[in-house]
Every structure is written in C-alpha cells, then in structure tokens.
Amino acid sequence: MMTTADYIALAFFACVWAGYSWLLKGRTFFGRTSLTHAMTERRRDWIYNSLRRDLKMIDTQIMAGLQNGTAFFASTSIFAIGSCFALLGATEKVDAVFADLPFVFHSGHAAFEMKVGGLAALFGYAFFKFGWSYRLFNYCTILFGAIPMMRDTESDVIAAERAAERVIRMNVIAGSHFNEGLRAIFLSIGYLGWFINPYVFMLTTAIVIFVLTRRQFFSEARLAIMDAGPPSNLHLSALRRDMPSNDGNDLTGRL
To answer: Where are the bilayer-spanning segments (predicted)?
Structure first.
C-alpha cells in the first residue's frame, strides 16, 4: 500500500512541476531573462527577416526541422507508454529484482502498478503535448505560406506585418506546447526515483528541476543568444562595440 511518505513525495512532485511552469511564465528570474523567452524574440526576428527575401527555402527547411523534431518525441512517447504496459505484465519479475536491492521500499503489487500507471500518464501527457505541437507547427507552415512577397510587402507594410505576427504567434504557441511535453519527459526521469523509495523520488525531482532552472537562466546556451557587443576580432565598422546587453548582465569576457 501507499505510505504517507509516498503521498508527500507525490505532492512535492506536483508542486515543484507547477512552480517551475509558473516560473517560466514570468519574464525574469533574479533579473535574468529565461532561455525560452529569449528564443521567443529570436523567433520574431526570424519571421520578420523572412519578409525581406522572396526565396524562402531556408525558412521552410527550418519549419520542417521543427516538425520532424516534434514528431520524433511524439513517437518516443508512444513507445514509452507501450513499455509501461509491458512492465505491468512483469510484476512478479520486478518483485524478485526489488527483493535483492538495498534501500528499496517495495509496497506491494498495487502500489507498484499505481506508480507505473503514473509514469504512463506522464508519457501520455507528453504525447498529447507533442501531438498538438506538431499540428500547430503544421498550421504555422500554412500561415507562413500566406506571407506576401517583397514587392507586396513594400506596397502594404501593415498587411505584411499582420501576416508575420500570425505566424509568430502560432510558432510561439507550438513551441510552448513542445517545451511542456519535453518538460514532462525530463521530469519522468525524476519520477523513476519513486520506484526506489519516496525520499529518492523527491531528491531526483529536485535535481531535475535544478538542472532545468540552471539551463534556463544560467547556462552558456542562454548567454549565446543574448544581445551583446560584437567580439573584438569582428571588423565591421557598421557595428557598435559598446552595445550593452539587453538583459542587464555583464557578459564581458564570456564571449
């Protein structure tokens, strides 16, 4: 049967997940813009840049890459769900394995099946997020096809910008659903700690959240896309070398 520690660990898992999702909905944390929000601005730059060229093969390749990545994770989620159902049919073998492992609190068949069911629910949630994201990226491709050519853009700038904003909004929403599905996949790694004991479950969940927070707000990937002055070995007179970061962070010596 489930113990009090199991319920506490499960509540901790849900609260930490909700808290991290809430944190990413804000624009800053400790005065730092998240990687997700910074990439939203780069999506906007990309779409508006496409208005200045008639040949959009590069853009369609980017769209295809986004769709293919989403489809890959959707397929992976389906395989993971199937693996969970296969695990339910091997309960006796799992009992034999757990009996020989130290520090494993095995609460019986019912508790084990509930844990596997929760893991399958996580992968099911991820699949629906990835599936919807794939559909939205498909819609985004259609909206992108409605962006006018350069000569039409020059004749009606307002209409062109409206078309670009529709693409941007759809792309951002699709990316948001993809990120939520990927977050569920990451947290499923922390969830695996529950099969050892509830204390390990809370520890692995905290570690996963710590790693995700670091990557969002304190990683080299985030610094790579923030606005900063050009490197010292870049000789373009049109660029100002004293351009500050729009994030308020000193990047001197990091680029």
So the answer is: 7-24, 71-91, 103-128, 191-212
